[in-house]
Amino acid sequence: MTGLWASIEALASDPNLRWIALGCMLLGLSSGMIGCFAYLRRQSLMGDTIAHTALPGICVAFLLTGVKSLPVFMLGAVVAGIAGTLAIRLITSRSRIKADAAMGIVLSSFFGIGIVLLTMIQHSGDGSQSGLDKFLFGQAASMVGSDVRLMAGVCLLLAAVCTLLFKEFKLLSFDPAFAKGAGFPTGLLDFMMQALVVVAVVAGIQAVGVVLVAALLITPAVSARFWTERLGRMILLSGLFGAVSGLLGAWISSQVSQLPTGPVSVLAAAAIFLLSVAFGSRKGLVVVALTRRGMRRSLEPAASASKAKEAG
Amino acid sequence: MMDFWILLTGSLAAVSCAVLGCFLILRRMALIGDAISHSVLPGIVIAYMFSGSRDSILMLIAAAFMGLLCVFLIQWFNQRGIQSDASIGVIFTSLFAIGVVLISLNARQVDLDLDCVLYGEIAYAAWNTLEIGGVGIGPRSVWLLGGALTLILAVIGLFYKQFKLCAFDPLLAAALGIPAALFHYLLMGLVSVTTVSSFESVGAILVVGLLVIPPSTAYLLTDRLGRMIAISAACGVLSTFLGFLLAVWLDASIAGCIVAAAAALFAAAFVLSPKHGLMAGRLRRRRRSLEGAA
């Protein structure tokens, strides 16, 4: 127990750790918020695809510049992510391949090319490449102060855009036809939402890794759905769940050596998800079972009364 | 000789995946294949921790069990009101995360490193030979994948009609009294077995490339299921050979190159397919507009 308190104290006092924890929290917050829109628009797995497509972008950025700097990597990842979404659109609109297969194709081809580039870089024996594979599962502890500040800034920006465009995004998620009819620039809004998903995924890559970063978009949003029927509350809750998962991920992985941040954050989010499935106030298993029992109780007297009448 | 074994391993994995992938594509379940390939990881790690070796049948069974558990959970949550794609996303990321954490925590006992999980060790697979009575009879992975392929071909061959009907018209299949749920889980079980046996050679994420890309290429080239399976298998083998050459030339990951080669074949089919390709569509449109003008 004392060890636990000591580590919490360390988290609060060590400035480096504090920055990392803050960065992961903001990351969870912003991806949780954006994830709600992705969930409502049935694009949950888009985040997963984009995350995998970012890998070749990072590798190409490294090959072109030869330096390991987060802004350059993020730029490469964003370009690759947008290329990936365009490729999916091209495949589904110009051939008879369905959306799920198109996502599978783009995800695995980009990731395959990324792995080829990554191994080429590794085999070329360049000493400065050693941190590149950290992007696969994320290692928050290896981030330096400026990386964390950049990530935190991007996440704040995402949360701000989400809040400012709340009404527009809400309309687009629930009734895109009406949004178009009402004169909203749906094409632009659609692109912006897509771009927000790309940026959220890319911002999360260094902390959570390309393989699992999508879970931060999906899992908190799905968990929040078990607690409320209102979009505003869902977004707040989802952001909160994401922030808690990010914080737990950063904290636990800083305590145990060799433990990558990504999987731990994902497991924290999964634990919140399981709690929500069981105890959620809207569709949780306990609530559903109780309502059912209550209904049966309230129907029983009526049923037995009518039975008695029939018998009589 | 080493090259021969690598090519044989890769081809066996590619053909197994390519055959099953056709049914996944047709049933619009490509991403369930992705989910299964990720979620077998905890099964493999747990079996490895218990048995301490990679050779165990236990590992195959545990991984196939995890794959089926994943499919079952996805359906269970889907029935409780979660959209199917979100349900897929939540389940497979959680299971994969459990696997990665278990590996990281037991790094000393578990001799499975994360690189191997992601992109396999096809080049080393050839070194790990199987011996019977002191005589080497070839790499273990070849026997494993050969067994898996035989199983797949036997099951699909026996129930070809049923699988075909379930793929194209599940409602009709159910009306005719074919146990659709049974065949669904049978297919998922086969996907799990294939994923596990290809896991060592091509890794968790690139398996999905072999499951999805060659069948999609074939889907663009033909309208008949039998031909689609044959073309898909041929594409898988061709990608293996091209990928291997590419890997030797670039000095890069063999599995990554195989998937990149498969992607290149898909791109070629996407543009050039005589019936469903980009160019054919454009030519058709132009001919139609010319006819309209005349």
Rounded Rg of chain B: 20 Å
The low-pLDDT segments of chain B are none
How far apart are the termini of chain A?
69 Å
Secondary structure: helix percent of chain B? over 70%
Q: Rg of chain A from C-alpha positions?
A: 23 Å
H and E order of chain A: HHHHHHHHHHHHHH
- Which chains make the largest contact? A-B, 59 and 63 residues
On the 0-100 scale, what is the average pLDDT of chain B? 85
CATH fourth-tier homologous superfamily of chain B: ABC transporter involved in vitamin B12 uptake, BtuC
Q: Indicate the mean pLDDT of chain A.
A: 85
Describe the structure.
The complex is a heterodimer of chains A (312) and B (294). Helices cover 82% and strands 0% of the residues of chain A. The model of chain A has no long low-confidence stretch (mean pLDDT 85). Chain A is mainly α and 312 residues long. A two-stranded antiparallel sheet of chain B has the order 1-2. In chain B, helix 1 (2-26) packs parallel to helix 7 (140-158), helix 1 crosses helix 12 and helix 11 (204-221) packs across helix 12 (225-250). The longest helix of chain B is centred in the C-terminal third of the chain and has 26 residues, at 225-250. The model of chain B has no long low-confidence stretch (mean pLDDT 85). Classes of the chains: A mainly alpha (312), B mainly alpha (294). Chains A and B meet through helix 3, helix 5, helix 11 and helix 13 of A and helix 2, helix 4, helix 5, helix 11 and helix 12 of B.
